[in-house]
Fold this protein.
Amino acid sequence: MTVYLLRKLLGTIPTIFGVALIVFLLFHVVGGDPTYQMLGKYATAEQVAELRHQLGFDQPLHRQFVGFLREIVTFDFGESYATKQKVSRMILDGIVPSLSLTLPAFFLTTLIAVVIGLLVAYFRGRWIDRVTVLLCVLGMSVPVLAYILFGQYFLAYRLQLFPIAGYDPEWPERLVYLALPILISVMVSVGFSVRFYRTALIEETSQDYVRTARAKGLSEPRIYLKHVLKNSLVPIVTNVVMDLPLLVLGAFLLEKFFGIPGLGGITINAVHDSDFQVIKAMTIFQSFLFILGNVLTDVAYTLVDPRVSFDGR
Amino acid sequence: MHRRFHDLLPLLLVPALMLSAGGCTPRKKTDTANTLNTYQPSRIKGLDPIYADDIYSGTEVKRAYEGLLQYHYLKRPYELAPNLAEAMPEVSADGRSYTFKLKKGVLFQDDPCFKETGGQGRELTADDVVYSFLRLVDPRLVSTGWWVLDGKIEGLNEWRESAKHAPPDYTKPITGLQALDRYTVRITLVRRSAQFLFALAMPFTSIVPREAVQHYGKEFLNHPVGTGPFRMAEFDRNSRLVWVKNPTYRKELYPSEGESGDKEAGLLEDAGKPIPFLDRIVVQVFDETHPQWLSFLSGKLDATGIPKDNFAEAVGGNHDLTPELQKKGIRLHKNPGIDIVRTTFNMKDPLVGRNKLLRQAISLAYDAEPYIELFFNGRAIPAQGPIPPGVAGFDPDFKNPYRQYNLEKAKELLAKAGYPGGKGLPPLEYSATADGVSRQTTEYLQKLLAPLGIKLKVNTYSWPEFQAGVKNARGQLWSYAWNADYPDAENFLQLFYSKNASPGPNDANYSNPEFDRLYEKALQLQDGPERTALYQQMVRIVVEDCPWIFAVHRSIFSLVQPWVKNYKRHGFEHNAMKYYRVDPALKKQ
Amino acid sequence: MGAEAGSIANEEVRPARSLWSDAFRRLRRDRLAVLCLLVVLAYAAAALLAQFGWIASPWEQEVGKAFAPPSFDRLELIMGTDFLGRSVLYKVVHGARVAMSVGLLASLISVPIGVLLGATAGYFGGWWDDAVVWFYTTVASIPGIMLLIAITLMLGKGMTAMCIALGATSWVHLARVMRGEFMKHKSREYVVAAESLGAGHSARIFRHIFPNVSHFVIINFSIQFMGAIKAEVILSFLGIGAQGLPSWGVMISDAKDELSRWVFWPWLNGTTPVWWQLAGATSAMFFVVLALNILGDALRDALDPRIK
């Protein structure tokens, strides 16, 4: 197992190098010019030249690339052009609030969606299935903005069930502030997930072994909970792991409206400011999460599905 | 790092806790009634004074830091007053030299960076003033505030030049910036300047202790250590800042005089009492206006501006509060903003720069009234020239002949300019930023120019790219707002001085020898009728040449909860909140 | 199709033909899929007509006062007006034009890249295959939205940049599928036979194998088209998408603040927030994405012989 994991991780090195190369080409070679913004409204030509020199823009490309690789290895991306804050610190500061919002939302969504998915797969074709699918489609079609504005206006302002916006790193206050955004996040994504799991589960129920189990006289709930669910774990795990990178950036609208200091908002601000140093670091960071997610998926397969062996690719 | 991941553990319990989460509103252990809840509409970059070039970080910086001077809180027109200086400086006979006496016994806030005293803040001295100014000059620090001292103080530019090639020497004597003794600083200017003292009330020139800069290094911008009335308790630059009263703050008193009407407005009730009155200031960062507005309505914010889409809800037809808000006791304050919103013609451009008639025609077609209604809910007045009301040199009777909306005359001038009905005129290159309001403004401008047959080719940029374009004089037109840095018409007129051309603040690259001559003459004069006459002469020259479409001067409407006392909007003083008082009894209701 | 490429090869191509006609028959039977196809075609028609200025033009014109709520007085007022008093209906139609052209152009860029890279990698194998696999794994590892942001920031803003960015980021899936299929097909008898008849590499790739796997391109096309439309909305919402055109993303971005503006609505005899721009743009987007979604599934079912 350890050997397998190590081999997998080593195999990601060329990809990591490729990611670094592409990101470097995109941002260093043709990236924007932050000097005027950094110098403010009274910039002089002398200051511009001086700053470019300081930022190393006048260095040859290969030197800049080596510098960039060093940044990646040390996870030290220098300072943001727009704020002068350390980029690595900005990312680390943003991770916890982002995950505090997306992780619970994600777990809840998956849990609810799998339960509903099992139910509708069991009742498929009947009215309960149709109604659920219809509700899912409707839920998906309401834009997240509408949920946010409605939630803030009625649930928070009118009914005072939740605070309107804000964030507090202390527990349990943090949970109080995050309850409404988590609720909205679940509302928005549960429709899509239910549809996904329903398909995956129904596909599984048409397999031979289900028929065999029925023939053997096993009860339906038992078949569903024990066999179908277990065998559908592969698509479920894939979906879960592939969504993980999204957890980091996925909730930028929620973050902006609820004042949650997460990575989504940081990235969006960086895009607005053309703060390439931050965008670059965020891109690298998320790519690595994705690569890691891929490795984890492979590992998870071997754990949930005995048919996949450690030796297989 | 350890702590952070530890933080995540309780998340696993979240699903179980979710059910019991709603219902209660967070109750802070430290929450006292004497707290002011305020907000910033933008994330705070950092709290190093030498980078505080935006109003948001400037305001936060000034809670902890102070400069030699400040603005008088109540007097209008705006007037400087001593802050860390004991009194206004002594001026030498030639008007070039200012001698400041510092207040004695001013302490920096307690902070671990003061290792020698075991964390107790030490006394502020004249050396700190010199040190803090040199940080602004140090080329390696790339301050955004260098311009306030650039070319003004004797020997300072030479120091900057020498610091480019060798490590800067902060102890090297400089002729124009000297600590004469522990409490005396003398500043000698290259030439007389009526505007120089304003620089000493800006966030850039706040006094910082060397120990904090050295102790925190790059992290200094997250650890403010000043002499000010508040000290930092919590800093999350993306969501929340908490300030508490500085226990070692010296004795400063609430002002006992103001302008007429202040007494009636209750602004002098606390005259002579020690400030600050507040125990805590909680600053919430709102990226979006919707939650900001709802927070104010539910009493969680003590003062707010009015988002443009909530205007009708707050203010009725006669620009008075709606009855609903009046019933809550909320007060509406209206103040002119010292600014101008304008569209710039690039005078370096061979097409628009050389054709005065074309510029005048476009200016005549620019209808400010619907613009004011659509984008400002009437909270603006049409501009006639560069100088806004509220500063000396503004002439309320002056009417700009090219800013009276007149489509017929515009068409006439356009024909004279060589493009009858817009024929033969290529689409004009218009630069804009990519945000929503800028896009809508552009659409409005396109609509205005359509009857003249003038088309715009719109290039959209992010804010930094836009600035880079403007500073390199790319494009033919762009729109911009200019907020005054100090209350003097000179701050607006310098935008036309040829030596300030791109990348300087004269983004039109306007150049007129006669204007330059008058400008240089006015720089030497103190405020008075002679200078005002010169200012008005300069305005007439600029208006005729039409390097800008002078669009509007904005006014600022703010809403204040009934329990907030001593509120008076100040256009330049960043730390007005040290004067605010919260009435706990009223707040409870 | 390569009918003139020799008799044996010709015979081998035939299953592909029957696959297509088979597929059409099955697709026609699926009523929902036909409906979705009609929806997509209707959008395309609206986009085309708007492009030529035959309907909903000019959208820039004021048709009423600012923020007028929906009314049946005139056609252009059915969805109300925006902040300059322009018809929201017209803007929605022109938004379809932007979305459809982005979807089409992006696919036109990404499909050739995906087919070419995937086909050659699968066909030739060796170091070229390694290089292509490395390249698409790398591209796939960078989050699509970040890549899009980077490319649009690099190329400047606007439609062209957005199409290129979308095209450059969305070819990976197709390349992967193509590579797999070509690896399977290259050693099949009909290809070996074509080779013995003197068909060169390019003839084998494009005349012989490609027609047999081209249905994957169609399936992929519908998915990509949908992805492009969604991405256009997000990019425009972030302010780095379409410029000076009434795109759905721009409308949604505008609407975010409008929702807290309350205006009088005669239908209700009361006030209402300004919701019509948001509703118009989102529902327009929702229906076409849903239709493409279902259509994509149906196409896959009908065309992919593996899941008959």
